[in-house]
Design a protein that fits this description.
The complex is a heterodimer of chains A (198) and B (369).
Chain A lengths: L2 H8 L6 E5 L5 H10 L2 E6 L2 H9 L4 E3 L2 H4 L8 E7 L8 H11 E9 L4 H10 L23 H10 L3 E9 L2 E4 L5 H7 L2 E7 L1
Parallel strand pairs in A: 1-2, 1-4, 2-3, 4-5
Antiparallel strand pairs in A: 5-8, 6-7, 6-8
Chain B lengths: L7 E5 L3 E2 L5 E2 L2 E8 L9 E5 L25 E2 L4 E2 L4 E5 L14 E2 L4 E2 L9 H14 L5 E7 L1 H12 L4 E7 L7 H15 L17 H14 L3 H7 L19 H16 L2 H13 L2 H4 L14 E7 L7 H13 L3 E7 L13 H14 L1
Parallel strand pairs in B: 5-8, 5-11, 6-7, 11-12, 12-13, 13-14
Antiparallel strand pairs in B: 1-4, 2-3, 4-8, 9-10
Classes of the chains: A alpha/beta (198), B alpha/beta (369).
C-alpha cells in the first residue's frame, strides 16, 4: 500500500463511517475495514475497479462524484476521502461543497502543481510538465483543474473551510504545512494532504 | 402436458389475504430446488422468476425440454454454484407451471377458473412464496435474487421481510412500473383479448386457446427485451431462406421469422390468462406508493447487504430506474453496491451468457458467504 494511504488511514479513528470517492481497486477501503473496523463505502467510475472491489467484499457504487455524490444524504458519513482526483473534475468547487455536505470531515489529497520540478519543466522546456504524479501528456490528461498547495490553502480560506490538518509528502517524507513554511512547502512537495472541515 | 406430474408442489393451508381484498387458502405452490441445504441452513438462495419464467431455473425443464431460464448463472461450478448453495425457485401465483393460477380448477364449479381467478400483485406473489421458508425450515436465507419482475419481487421481499435474508440482488428492474412498461404490457393484453378464441377468458373450459393473440403479445414483448444494436447486428436486413424479396406478406426477413418462432414457441408453454394476470401484477407494482411516496422507507433500518445490477442497453428497465433503487437504499443508510454491466443484449442480458454479469454475481456471493 502506498504511503499516502497509510497517512490517510492514520488520520481516521476506529469504527467510523467512511466514503472513499474514487476508491479505485479498494486497497485503502480494505485497509480501513481490516485495521480500523471502519464501515466503508466506495464510489468508483471504472467498471473493472468496481468488479475488483465487489470481489473483495467491499461495498462500492459505480458512479461519478460530480453527478452521484448527491444521492448520499447529508452527514451520512464521518469522513469522506478524495485521493488525487479533485483536479479531474469539471467543477471542483462543487465537489468540495458536496464532500463537506455528506461528511463532517473530508480528506483531500492533491498532486502539487507548484512542485519545483513541475515549475522547472515548464520554465526550461517550455512544454506541459510530466512527473511521477502527472504522467500524462497535455492532450490526454484527465486533469482539468490543476492547482498548487498554495492555491488549495487560499481556496479553503476564501470558502471559509477549516484546514484541520495540512500535510505534505515528498519522497515518503511527511511534514506539516503552516503559514510560515507555506511558500517553501509549495515548492518542495509533490503531494498535499488536507483534512478539512466546514 | 402429462409431465405436469413431475412438478413438486406444496399446498399452503394458511390463508393469504390478497391486495384485492379476497382471501385464498389451500392453494398450491409449485417449486424446484437445486443443490443441498447445509446443516446450518445458511446457504439457501430464493430466486424469483420473471414474467415468462417458471420454477425450473437450470438443467432441463421437464415440461418444455428446454434449458432452464437461468442455466448460464446457476448450476454445478457456475456463478451460483449448486455444490455450495441451495437454490429454491417457485412458480408465482397467477402462473401456469403448477402454482395457483387462472388455469387451476375452480373446486366448486368443476371447471377452470379463467378470469374468475382474483387479480394478484407482486406483494401477493412474494407473500405466497414466503411459505417456502417455513416448509424448508429456513430461518434466514443467504440471498434473494431475480431479474425484471424477479427483481421487483426481491424489492418487495426485503421490504416485507427485512430479517429473512442476508443479501439481496435486484437485477434489471424498477421500484415502480413505468408508463412505457404499462403501455407495452397493455399492448400484449389487448392482443390476447382481441383474439376471438380468448372467449372472455373462458377458453380452457371451451377447449380453445387464443394462440394468435398470445403469440402477438409475445412477439411485441420480445422486441422490448432486445436492443436496437443487438437486433441490427444479429439480423440486419438478412433474408430468411430466400435470395430476394417475395413481394408478399410472408416472413421475408430473418427477424420476422425469428419473432414468429418466438411467438409460436411461447403458446406451447404459456397460458394466455396467466399472461394477463402477471403483466397486471407488474403494472400495479409501485413500492414507492406503498411507502407513502418515499421509497427509502421500504428499506428503513435494513441490515441486508444489497447489490443492484443494471445493463447498458436495457431500455425496458434502464439504468436510471435501477439507480433510483440505489439512491433510496443510500438514503436509508443501507449497505448497497451497484454496477452497470456493458452489454448489447438489451433487457434479456440477465438471462444470457454475459461474462461480466455472471462474474459480478459470483464475486458478490462468494465475498459475502
Amino acid at each position: 500500500m502506498k504511503k499516502e494511504f497509510q497517512i490517510i488511514s492514520d488520520l481516521i479513528e476506529k469504527n467510523q463511517r467512511v466514503l472513499d470517492v474514487g476508491c479505485g481497486d479498494g486497497t485503502l477501503m480494505k485497509h480501513l475495514k481490516d485495521t480500523k473496523n471502519v464501515d466503508t463505502r466506495g464510489l468508483e467510475i471504472s467498471k473493472s475497479n468496481v468488479q475488483t472491489c465487489i470481489g473483495k467484499g467491499l461495498t462500492v457504487i459505480e458512479g461519478n462524484a460530480e453527478t452521484d455524490l448527491k444521492q448520499f444524504p447529508s452527514l451520512s458519513f464521518d469522513y469522506v476521502i478524495l485521493s488525487q482526483t479533485l483536479q479531474a473534475f469539471y467543477n471542483p468547487e462543487k465537489v468540495i461543497d458536496d464532500l463537506l455536505r455528506v461528511a463532517n470531515k473530508a480528506i483531500v489529497t492533491i498532486p502539487n502543481f507548484g512542485y519545483w520540478k513541475v515549475r522547472l519543466h515548464l520554465l526550461l522546456k517550455g512544454t506541459m510538465p510530466i512527473t511521477k504524479h502527472l504522467p500524462n501528456e497535455w492532450y490526454n490528461t484527465p486533469n482539468l483543474h490543476m492547482c498548487t498547495i498554495k492555491d488549495f490553502v487560499n481556496f479553503c480560506s476564501k470558502k471559509n473551510i477549516n484546514l484541520f490538518k495540512s500535510l505534505t509528502l515528498n519522497k515518503n517524507n511527511l511534514s506539516a504545512i503552516n503559514s510560515k513554511n507555506l511558500n517553501l512547502k509549495n515548492l518542495f512537495s509533490e503531494l498535499g494532504i488536507f483534512l478539512i472541515e466546514k | 402436458m402429462n409431465n405436469l406430474e413431475k412438478i413438486k408442489k406444496i399446498i399452503i393451508d394458511k390463508p393469504l389475504k390478497l391486495d384485492c381484498g379476497k382471501t385464498i387458502k389451500n392453494y398450491p405452490i409449485a417449486y424446484e430446488t437445486y443443490g443441498k441445504l447445509s446443516e446450518n441452513r445458511d446457504n439457501a438462495i430464493l430466486a424469483f422468476h420473471a414474467l415468462s419464467g417458471d420454477q425450473f431455473v437450470t438443467g432441463t425443464n421437464p415440461i418444455t425440454n428446454k434449458p432452464g431460464w437461468w442455466s448460464h448463472l446457476v448450476g454445478t461450478n457456475k456463478a451460483i454454484d449448486t455444490n455450495k448453495f441451495f437454490v429454491i425457485c417457485a412458480n408465482v401465483i397467477g402462473g401456469c407451471m403448477g402454482s395457483y393460477g387462472p388455469s387451476s380448477n375452480d373446486a366448486q364449479k368443476n371447471k377452470k377458473l379463467g378470469t374468475n381467478f382474483p387479480i394478484i400483485t407482486i406483494n401477493d406473489m412474494v407473500n405466497a412464496q414466503y411459505n417456502l421458508l417455513d416448509y424448508f425450515k429456513i430461518d434466514k436465507l443467504f440471498s434473494v435474487m431475480g431479474g425484471s419482475m424477479g427483481g421487483m419481487q426481491v424489492l418487495q421481499f426485503v421490504a416485507n421481510y427485512p430479517n429473512k435474508t442476508k443479501t439481496a440482488i435486484p437485477i434489471a428492474c424498477s421500484a415502480s412500473h413505468s408508463a412505457q412498461n404499462i403501455a407495452l404490457n397493455e399492448l400484449g393484453r389487448q392482443a390476447i383479448m382481441a383474439d376471438s378464441n380468448w372467449m372472455k377468458g373462458d377458453y380452457l373450459n371451451l377447449e380453445n386457446s387464443p394462440d394468435k393473440g398470445l403469440s402477438v403479445a409475445r412477439m411485441a414483448a420480445h422486441i422490448t427485451y432486445l436492443s436496437q444494436k443487438g437486433l441490427q447486428e444479429k439480423f440486419g436486413r438478412k433474408l430468411q431462406e430466400r435470395d430476394d424479396l417475395k413481394f408478399s406478406f410472408d416472413a421475408d426477413f430473418q427477424i420476422e421469422s425469428y419473432l414468429r418462432h418466438q411467438g409460436s414457441a411461447f403458446v406451447d408453454r404459456f397460458d394466455a390468462n396467466s399472461y394477463l394476470y402477471i403483466t397486471r401484477a407488474m403494472d400495479y407494482f409501485d413500492l414507492t406508493k406503498q411507502y407513502n411516496g418515499n421509497l427509502s422507507n421500504a428499506f428503513k433500518n435494513t441490515k441486508i447487504k444489497f447489490f443492484v445490477i443494471s445493463f447498458t442497453s436495457d431500455w425496458l428497465y434502464p439504468t436510471s430506474e435501477n439507480k433510483e433503487i440505489v439512491i433510496a437504499l443510500n438514503v436509508a443508510g443501507a449497505d448497497v453496491g451497484f454496477i452497470e454491466i456493458v452489454s448489447d443484449k438489451g433487457h434479456d442480458s440477465f438471462l444470457l451468457d454475459v461474462p461480466d454479469f455472471l462474474k459480478s454475481v459470483k464475486n458478490f456471493l462468494e465475498a459475502n458467504y
